[in-house]
Amino acid sequence: MNKKIAVLGAGSWGTALAILAARNGCQTLLWGHNPKHMALLTQDHENKRYLPGWIFPENLTITSDLADVSAFCNLVLVSVPSHAFKDTLIKLKTHLSNGLQIAWATKGFNPDNGSLLHEVVADIFSPQTPAALLSGPSFAAEVAAELPTAITIASSQPDFANHLADILHSERFRTYTNSDLIGVEVGGAVKNVMAIAAGIADGLGFGANTRAALITRGLNEIIRLGVKLGGRQETFMGLAGLGDLILTCTDNQSRNRRFGLALGQGKDTAAAIQEIDQEIEGISAAKETFLLAKKYGVDMPITEQTYKVLYEGLTPLAAVQNLLAREQKAES
Ligand SMILES: NC(=O)c1ccc[n+]([C@@H]2O[C@H](COP(=O)([O-])OP(=O)(O)OC[C@H]3O[C@@H](n4cnc5c(N)ncnc54)[C@H](O)[C@@H]3O)[C@@H](O)[C@H]2O)c1
Ligand SMILES: O=P(O)(O)OC[C@H](O)CO
């Protein structure tokens, strides 16, 4: 397979995806924004900061110069955090625009206005630019370890989704295609809010029953917002919805769940962020989801309470008590 791909973002997920593509036989370029960090990756042939223990395949090369991307190929997979997504695409455009095929693995909203990331892609490049999102239950370290994983590749352009699936698919990394870009985006972004909430409940000492209730009612919130934004209900029962929600709410590899655990155990937000020392996408997603819910009149009580803990100083215990005090009603 003489295929090429440039991965933008040398964190845990971009590094894992670059290693995956290289193992699949792709000539792979991994770009990171920090020259000193990328020099270490070049020197060490591994990412000791974000994905230690996984030596890079020989067909994976490192750069901190975006100009190298346009000379390398026109297929780009963006895996920077949501707060860096728009700026990274703006920088990319100065080097590559014509013929660009872009995918992204970022889970979140555009922090400027809560828009979905496919809208950022369309605004910066074009609505006709081949675009796809990669999302689903996938911890980077397990992908690097080649533990069986299944993810969704969502695009309104099926040929492009299939092209990307061909490049990334393997026995241990199963790719499923989906035409519901909005549903997959909302599922991947809002599951991080629910993971914080589930972590808070566990950190407070509540049990498995509580966690199951939060996951179930959290899925209900995600579906309500996702359908309102144009997603298909069935998408949220799939890998990018229920699958990723269960994974992130129940396993301590999740940064979002661990962040919630720390809050529930009494740490303040700053201390919890410092302790985790990696991206916690649910913090910004909690605000963006809360604002979207208000804008579209969608009842999202778990999201609202999580937002109030993170942005209004509500204590974790008071947040759970507020949820428990809600009036009895028919399940919907
Ligand atoms: N880590 C996982 O298991 C995993 C799995 C699936 C999806 N994701 C998603 O991947 C995205 C990237 O997160 P991650 O897990 O790799 O985070 P990370 O904390 O592991 O790494 C973050 C990376 O972003 C870089 N970065 C920070 N600010 C930047 C900027 N302004 N411009 C460019 N790069 C910048 C950092 O240098 C670092 O390399 C997130 O949206 C996350 O939800 C992560
Ligand atoms: O560590 P988290 O909570 O950002 O979760 C990582 C991935 O999104 C899991 O699918």
Notes on the structure:
It catalyses: sn-glycerol 3-phosphate + NAD(+) = dihydroxyacetone phosphate + NADH + H(+); sn-glycerol 3-phosphate + NADP(+) = dihydroxyacetone phosphate + NADPH + H(+). It is found in: Cytoplasm. It comes from Candidatus Methylobacter oryzae. By secondary structure, the chain is of the alpha/beta class. It has helices at 12-23, 35-44, 67-72, 82-93, 117-124, 140-144, 158-168, 181-203, 208-228, 239-250, 255-264, 269-276, 281-296, 301-311, 316-324, and strands at residues 4-8, 27-31, 60-63, 75-78, 101-104, 131-135, 149-154, 173-178. It has two domains: 4-179, Rossmann fold, CATH 3.40.50.720; 182-324, N-(1-d-carboxylethyl)-l-norvaline Dehydrogenase, domain 2, CATH 1.10.1040. It has an eight-stranded mixed β-sheet, sandwiched between helices. The chain is globular and about 60 Å long. Bound molecules: nicotinamide-adenine-dinucleotide and SN-glycerol-3-phosphate (G3P). Residues 9-14, 32-34, 50, 79-82, 84, 88, 105-108, 138-140, 278-279, 281 line the site of nicotinamide-adenine-dinucleotide.
Whole-number total of structural domains:
2
* Strands in their spatial order, largest beta sheet: 3-2-1-4-5-6-7-8
Low-confidence stretches: none
H/E order of the elements?
A: EHEHEHEHEHEHEHEHHHHHHHH
CATH arch. level architecture of the largest domain:
3-Layer(aba) Sandwich
In CATH, what is the class of the largest domain?
A: Alpha Beta
Indicate the structural class.
Answer: alpha/beta
User: Radius of gyration in whole Å, from Cα?
Assistant: 19 Å
Q: Give the bound compounds.
A: nicotinamide-adenine-dinucleotide, SN-glycerol-3-phosphate
The average pLDDT value, as a whole number, equals 97
The coarse silhouette is globular
| Biggest sheet layout | 8 strands, mixed
- What percent strand? 5-15%
Distance between the termini: 49 Å
Total helical segments:
15
* Total strand segments: 8
Secondary structure: helix percent:
40-55%
CATH topology of the largest domain: Rossmann fold
> Any idea what the CATH superfamily of the largest domain is called?
NAD(P)-binding Rossmann-like Domain
Binding site for sn-glycerol 3-phosphate: 107, 136, 138, 191, 244, 254-256
Enzyme class: oxidoreductase
Protein name: Glycerol-3-phosphate dehydrogenase [NAD(P)+]
Active site: 191
